[in-house]
Amino acid sequence: MIGQENALRSFGIVRAMNEYDSIKLFFETNDENGEFLTCSENAVSRFFPPIDKDLIYCTKNAFSELVVDINIGLGFLFQVGFPNKRTLEWLKQQNFDVKFLGDLDPVDLLIFRILQTITDNVTFLNPYESIAANAFVQEQTVEEKQAFKHFESQFQEIENAISPSNYKLVKSGKKIELEAVADSIQWFLQSL
Using an 8 Å Cβ cutoff, are 146 and 156 in contact? Predict the structure, then answer.
């Protein structure tokens, strides 16, 4: 429903939106197929506190079962969909070095971008450079391609953070789901 947001803008209803509000509105108005989920304000996240100050923010709750046995001092926050304000406010108050782990697709990259707007200490974890991950490249959905086109300037800003080759892959209409690297995720996290 990109047209709905553009219509709101043309009627002056949406004025000078900041990046957070613009991305949030996009998620809220484009969730017909369940691709752009928003996390309700009372949604419960799975949280494992860090020993030091490294926190992995992961968009896949199912991965919590894979990492629960890893004793490497990292904290984990698992939350599906666009993060709610409570989570973002909490993250803002912490002094964590946030490491983002999500799909290599427009949906999760927009969530990564939102995290970048609230803290300077966020990096993109990149388990996607391997040959094995590239075997799982898929075509983006129509909605994901629309999101990339709509927020292309935001994606250009994160090109170096996600790597130029990953940016090129996403820009070409392709994606890699985090599940593609599930078999090696424990090894990858232990190597951090």
Answer: no
User: How confident is residue 69, by pLDDT bands cut at 50, 70 and 90?
Assistant: low
Question: Which pair of structure tokens corresponds to residue 7?
Answer: 């219509």
In eight-state DSSP terms, residue 81 is S
pTM reported for the whole predicted model: 0.83
Helix segments in the chain, DSSP class H: 2-10, 19-29, 64-67, 85-93, 106-118, 131-134, 142-150, 152-157, 159-162, 164-171, 185-190
Among 126, 123, 70, 128, residue whose Cα is nearest residue 98:
123
Tokens encoding 159? 């090109």
What CATH number is associated with residue 54? 3.40.1360.10
Residue 28 lies in a domain: no
